[in-house]
């Protein structure tokens, strides 16, 4: 089976993270200065960037003591609504920095009184040039349409944002451990990856779930499986899954669970794995040894503190997506109907 550009870019993530952290960690002082004039955070993003923003939303509320919310760009671009955003830090997240809807919404937020941060891999993009502080990731050129290294470096940028905005309980050294953990994942045997791939080749739909800080991984994994494998993958918090959709679980509907190896939501994830197995669903995991023991098959990752764990959890999910796409005869580099830079119309 031939390799893909997506697979090559997945392998570039440890170095991309090292470059990004070296670039962004020195900017914590600038972020802290912005934080002194703001209280709340509004994230502006779409697609994979929106999933990354979910990570930022949890980090800032759990560890930064700030109310954070995901914005709806159409409020600005379609409705032209006005809002009092004084005291708000608007964080616009876009891999290219060129998505017109995101740039326009950031401008709208600034006009409404917000201070702005741009998170982008485009150093000379409008998003970087027009924000008060630009957190420019150093992923390098990304050719494959599915975001891999640009997504993981966005997570790193948002982790640095959390450090700058008052994450006093967070250890910057935890971030420095992540690239080595990704090297370990890439070097590990892939027997479980092959077996899970094989077991997913005949399914039409599946559930991908997690909770809290790991929710970003569930949402992004489901998106990747939809766009590259054309699989009807439902990504959601397991709390939402328990409120009705869990009724779809049966032997024809696999469940993929993502969880850090520590933290307050781990035991709930394990309990959900056991419930899914009792419904007859094939149950797969991405996480540590404790989650692996509750699943049929698991893609294990090195132990990382919960707040940085999503940067490790997403890599096995990307490997699974790339392998499954090729196993199904699809080209993961160029999924049908998608472009690298998406412009929202209307």
UniProtKB/TrEMBL annotation:
Keyword annotations from UniProtKB, A to Z: Aminotransferase, Repeat, Transferase
Tagged with keyword Repeat: yes
Annotated EC: 2.6.1.16
GO molecular function list: carbohydrate derivative binding; glutamine-fructose-6-phosphate transaminase (isomerizing) activity
Residues of the SIS domain: 30-172, 196-330
Enzyme class per UniProt: transferase
GO biological process: carbohydrate derivative metabolic process
A Pfam family of this chain: SIS
Protein known as: Glucosamine--fructose-6-phosphate aminotransferase (Isomerizing)
Organism field: Nocardiopsis algeriensis
């Amino acid at each position: 089976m031939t390799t893909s550009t997506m697979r090559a870019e997945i392998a570039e993530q440890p170095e991309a993270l090292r470059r990004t952290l070296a670039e962004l960690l020195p900017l914590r002082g600038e972020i802290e200065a912005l934080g002194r004039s703001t209280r709340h955070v509004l994230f502006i993003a779409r697609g994979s960037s929106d999933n990354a923003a979910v990570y930022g939303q949890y980090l800032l509320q759990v560890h930064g003591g700030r109310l954070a919310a995901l914005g709806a760009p159409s409020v600005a671009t379609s409705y032209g609504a006005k809002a009092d955003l004084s005291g708000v830090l608007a964080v616009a997240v876009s891999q290219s920095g060129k998505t017109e809807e995101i740039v326009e919404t950031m401008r709208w937020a600034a006009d409404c009184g917000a201070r702005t941060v741009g998170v982008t891999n485009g150093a000379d993009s409008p998003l970087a040039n027009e924000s008060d502080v630009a957190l420019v990731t150093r992923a390098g050129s990304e050719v494959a349409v599915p975001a891999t290294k640009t997504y993981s470096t966005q997570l790193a940028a948002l982790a640095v944002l959390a450090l700058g905005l008052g994450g006093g309980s967070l250890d910057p050294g935890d971030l420095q451990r992540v690239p080595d953990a990704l090297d370990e994942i890439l070097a590990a045997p892939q027997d479980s990856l092959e077996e899970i791939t094989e077991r997913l080749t005949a399914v039409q739909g599946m559930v991908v779930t997690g909770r809290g800080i790991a929710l970003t991984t569930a949402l992004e994994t489901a998106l990747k499986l939809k766009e590259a494998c054309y699989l009807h993958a439902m990504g959601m918090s397991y709390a939402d899954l328990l409120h009705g959709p869990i009724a779809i679980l049966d032997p024809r509907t696999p469940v993929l669970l993502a969880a850090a190896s520590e933290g307050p939501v781990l035991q709930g994830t394990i309990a959900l794995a056991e419930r899914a197995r009792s419904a007859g669903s094939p149950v797969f995991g991405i996480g540590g040894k404790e989650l692996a023991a509750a699943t049929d098959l698991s893609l294990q990752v090195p132990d990382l503190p919960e707040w940085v764990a999503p940067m490790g959890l997403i890599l096995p999910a990307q490997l699974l997506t790339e392998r499954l796409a090729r196993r199904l005869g699809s080209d993961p580099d160029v999924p049908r109907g998608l472009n690298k830079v998406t412009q929202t119309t209307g």
